[in-house]
User: Fold this.
Amino acid sequence: MHAIDEELQHLEVVCNRLEIGLEKQYQRLKLGLFPDAADDGETARLAEHLRSAEDQFARLLRSRDDDSMLPAPEGSQTAARAPRMRMHALQLLALIERNAALCHELQRVSRDALRELQAGGQFLQSVRDCRENRPRYLDARQ
Assistant:
């Protein structure tokens, strides 16, 4: 197997792992759970791995100036895999955008709930004196 095919295969594996991670993140977001530090670290590692694989693949494609590097059947096979990889990359971008939109919605809902909680706390602070000075029971002898 040539270096370009190996890099394409490696890139496909990384893309598949990233897709699985994005789906897990989406399910957690649907449950109202923010991504934790471990999720962020894993996503960052996968993204860095994906960037390095893309860079390596781009270098290999640039270095392929002469067609003698790949025989005709393998060259056509590699050329056929490129559009699939591009479509997969576009799908990953769509998943990332979907997760980001859901995360922003979750943040908005959390901010609204926090504002409501703060307003309730301010109300309780404002009526605190009334509650402290109020007798706990009525004396029947009065």
Remarks:
- The CA atoms of residues 101 and 107 lie 10 Å apart.
- Residues 3-131 form one domain.
- The two ends are 99 Å apart (CA to CA).
